[in-house]
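Task: complex structure prediction.
Instruction: return structure tokens for all chains below.
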Amino acid sequence: MSVTNQVTETIAAVSTAMTNSGIGIVRISGNEALDVLSAMFRPAKKERKVKEIESHTVTYGHIYDGDTMIDEVLVIYMKGPHSYTAEDTVEIDCHGGVLVVKRVLETALKNGARPAEAGEFTKRAFLNGRLDLSQAEAVMELIDSKNEYARKNSLKQLKGSVSEKIGALRKTIIYEIAYIESALDDPEHISLDGYGDHLFDVVKKVKDEIDGLAASADNGRLLSEGIKTVILGKPNAGKSSVLNLLLGEERAIVTDVAGTTRDTLEEHLNLNGISLNLMDTAGIRNTEDIVEKIGVERALNHAEDADLILYVVDSSVALTAEDETIMDMIKDKQAIILLNKSDLAPVVDGAYLEERTKKQVISFSATREFGLSELSDAISGLFFSGSLAFNDEVYITGARQKNAFLKASDSLRQVLSSIEAGMPEDFYSIDLTDAYEALGSITGESVGEDLINEIFSKFCMGK
Ligand code: GDP
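Output:
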């Protein structure tokens, strides 16, 4: 999609965070970027003319509002299409005081630019064909990424990994649509004999790939947002100690008195690159203590919608009915059992726990600090097929992309049923076209203006 000629207004915004810092950047984009600049910038070398500044060079000088000097700056000019927006773009590096950047921006607005809307620079990059929609979304995710995996994944998507996949899948589909249409138009020369079998194989393969991509959305979410993890276990099993060890600092209060971790605490941590959002729990036990009871209920609620349960067992004391309750509860969940206090004489049999729950049991000691690397391996085994070096894989992030894949998959499922039911060929091409369009919506090939506006409105100002 290229509508460069429709975008003429020149926009400006502060593109760095609005706090006092070393430098702040005001960005101006549009046909008149250089005109706006020339009305407010005086190069230190007086013989230099702003309008003659070469593309991709840096010029030193001062910003003036009329005759009032505002700041000492460096100016970078990037002539379109070789810029982020694919339009003429100017970046003014000023001193990073909030007041300074605001004054520089105001001066740009006085001189003919209008304030950019949230995400408008990236939206222009999209409208000008520099980025497709999946890449634009990747920009936002890159900025928001909270860990290395999220950063790598969004960067890959930005470089076009998703777009390439979509392009290849759409090409396969459109080829079949075209074949069906041609055969229907020209039955004398193009035969559809046995075509159903061929199409079935092709569609099945494309559908499997799409299903895989849709399923990867959940991993993508876990990678970028973190695995919602709940620690369960009887009082005194060592839950707080495990939490402290994972966090690497004394955050929760550890005591010898059973049931002292009364409230639920949420903590975010990185375990060998895996993000966990951890909730400590009050432990599971029957108690008359009201505060403790509220804590237990909350812990159970959290466990309900947790991605992962870490069940901490005190290996130095015999299992009780409470342990049996927890084991029943984690049966259908992703869970790992930490056989804690393994530095002490063992009373609990790890093999029994494993047999009873079919979950991985890790010999662990929160105080002696062993079992951590086994734990991170176990988590990556549960969630990322054991491989966190997911270099070749494309992870889909975001519900919008996932839904589009599901929609495409559904249309293809329809094609498979039609073939099996021996329906006429024109039925196939209707559903194939739906799948083709659903895939196109991911990269923005077939989306309406409303959706585009909605997507870009989620961007931060200045991006
Ligand atoms: P919680 O009630 O489940 O949160 O248990 P705590 O973390 O408060 O631990 C209860 C007691 O067990 C404390 O005295 C801890 O120091 C001790 N403890 C925790 N983990 C271990 C361990 O791996 N080995 C030993 N020997 N003691 C531990």
